[in-house]
Fold this protein.
Amino acid sequence: MPDLSLKDRNLLLNILDSINKILIYSREFDNADSFNENTISFDASMMNFIVIGEMVDKLSDKLKDNEELKIDWGKIKGFRNIIAHNYFGIDAEEVWEIIQDSLPDLKIELEKLIS
């Protein structure tokens, strides 16, 4: 694992915090439609995806360019851009799949990285 600067470590902790919030906000729902219909939980989750993308953008190039890591930083930042610039065109099913399939894996990878 790469040596983390204090700045990168703090940014990763912020990303983990946002991931945990999204997982909490979405856990009471069992499908994309019910999650999307609860605008408070859905909007709060979208804001945290934006925060994650902003934090990724501030990570050092050294960390983002590390080929040992199995994290697609560009895809994370790209999803932030979709949310920020096309909010009313967001596909709730895609968001739901990311929350269910990708966020838990990202959380595990980040926890390993900062441990």
User: Anything to note?
Assistant: The first helix runs from residue 6 to 26. The chain has a mean pLDDT of 95. Residues 6-114 form one domain. Helices lie at 6-26, 32-37, 39-58, 61-64, 73-85, 92-114.
